[in-house]
Amino acid sequence: MTKTETPQSSGGDVRLHGISKTYGSFTAVQPLDLTVPAGSFFALLGASGCGKTTTLRMIAGLEEPTTGTVELSGRDVTALPPYKRQVNTVFQNYALFPHLDIYENVAFGLRRRGIKSVKKQVEEMLDLVQLGPMARRKPQQLSGGQQQRVAVARALINHPQVLLLDEPLGALDLKLRRQMQLELKRIQTEVGITFVHVTHDQEEAMTMADTVAVMNGGRVEQLGAPADLYENPGTTFVANFLGTSNLIEAEVVEAGGEELLLRAADTTLHLPAARCSASARKGEKVLAGVRPEKVALTHADDADGIAAEHNRLPGRIKDASFIGVSTQYVVEVPGLGELAVYEQNIERDGRLVPGAGIVLHWSRAHTFGLDATQDIQAGADLDEEAA
Length: 387
Description:
With 387 residues, this protein is α+β, with helices and mostly antiparallel strands. The protein has 2 domains: 8-231, P-loop containing nucleotide triphosphate hydrolases (Rossmann fold), CATH 3.40.50; 236-386, CATH 2.40.50.100. The protein contains 9 helices and 20 strands. The chain has helices at residues 52-60, 102-112, 119-128, 144-156, 174-191, 202-208, 226-231, 236-241, 382-386, and strands at residues 14-23, 26-36, 41-45, 67-72, 75-76, 87-91, 162-166, 194-199, 211-216, 219-224, 246-254, 259-264, 267-272, 285-290, 296-299, 310-322, 326-333, 337-344, 357-363, 368-371. The strands form 4 sheets. A 6-stranded mixed β-sheet has the order 6-7-8-3-9-10, with helices on both faces. Strands 13-12-11-14-20 form a 5-stranded antiparallel β-sheet, with no helix packed on it. Helix 2 runs parallel beside helix 4.
């Protein structure tokens, strides 16, 4: 199957209308409305137990929704069994037939449908996943990444409108997982089929997907392009689950213009009004957020050289960890606790060691604002639990 033979329109859209799933008194998925555009790479991202796999299984027909409907390409398929839906699923364990070689594993779906001439389609599919020379090997003779590509080829040869991927890279080591992220994205771009990918791995979702739905407690917390979710989180859960955020409790002391003036401990901070998702009237509390890599450290002796328009906080380095591409600092800020700073190792200042007095500073434009009534720690540790 070449790119010209399988145009971008070959994917189907997925529309979920008020679907939910309960098991007795437990609600796995709250009533959910979601649209996956045709031909897109869509990720359902969240920690274990958030409802992402249950949602995927309802799309596949492996779970029956308690309420709501599932539409594929404008057709209501809620009552249809899996084999009558134009979807195929790739699971974490690949589910390859160990007694069949790679060629026959890929050909299996075609042969089961009574198609006699499979050679051209199988060879084209093996070329797509770059496994042509290994066609006559058995699954156990392949690496985990190669087996995963066979599973994708076996699913794609049936020409589904939607390919569902349930933690497909979870069994691979880190280096191979990163290679396969790029490989899956390449395959999706070439075939143009709609991919719906379930994962707990933030990097995986952001590397591969056009659109990410961050799920928590059976609900979609936020949906959008990876960069937008990262730069403009709408909740503390998204801010903490997608990477790391410094969230600073502050009070609005001046509002009404393009910038909000905040008081945090004994320091004034500036927040662009357009980047605050919370109500921000004078006297109200907000959480001022900034990502660790947006923050710079300057030794206290050189503080006069910091740009006047930067937000700044005085502090003392508590810990410094060299991790190659960057150094990760933990800084104690009086009245605000510990904040994280990630600095690239370009020109390292030898004075920036634990115990040193420093000034944290960052561009006002990199500050975002969140509702202070939320749990400030929401989502902070779930990535480790899910892994």
